[in-house]
Amino acid sequence: MSLSEIKSRIAAAEAAANRAAGSVELIAVSKVQPNERVEAVLEEGHRVFGENRVQEAAGKWPEFRERFQGVDLHLIGPLQTNKARQAMELMNAIHSVDRPKLATTLARLTQELGQCPDLFIQVNTGEEEQKAGILPADADGFIQDCRDLDLPVKGLMCIPPVDEEASLHFALLAKLADRNGLAGLSMGMSGDFEGAIALGATHVRVGSAIFGDRTYSA
Is the pLDDT score of 7 beyond 80? Predict the structure, then answer.
């Protein structure tokens, strides 16, 4: 599917939900994609990208940023505390703040570096044991803890369970965000972004629908 087609579908979903045109940010998920595919999307003028791993992003994006102005890079995968400094120096936003230890590390580094990317707290809406994220019952307290650390929390992020109705999880995330006065909702992927937009998504993460199937090295 072409980038322009995805953007047209986002625009139609915004209109159907009575959302302002351009209120939803498309994050093109470029993780484990060959550089030539990423470059093709950059050549089309898109500038907002998502990466899962700091190390992969560090090997790819400094060179692209030299050639393409205005790249806006989002970390959408789990962040180890020992990679936090590198992430803060490389990323414009981090969508996976998911535990107190990481929050305190980010707060300390913010003081050292004098800046911090926009932050989204990851909520484990499905309460899945294998998945990262703050449990819904603990979200209010964790959001307040992050604010007490003066972290720039812009919103919440979730990845619904694959075998459950995604809209239920999007609605839960929207409720948690609204209750805590947070405007950002990072939710919705290639297969369900239109439903996420209907429920208030401000950032949708679309990979395979733009780039094709991912390419993993052997």
Answer: yes
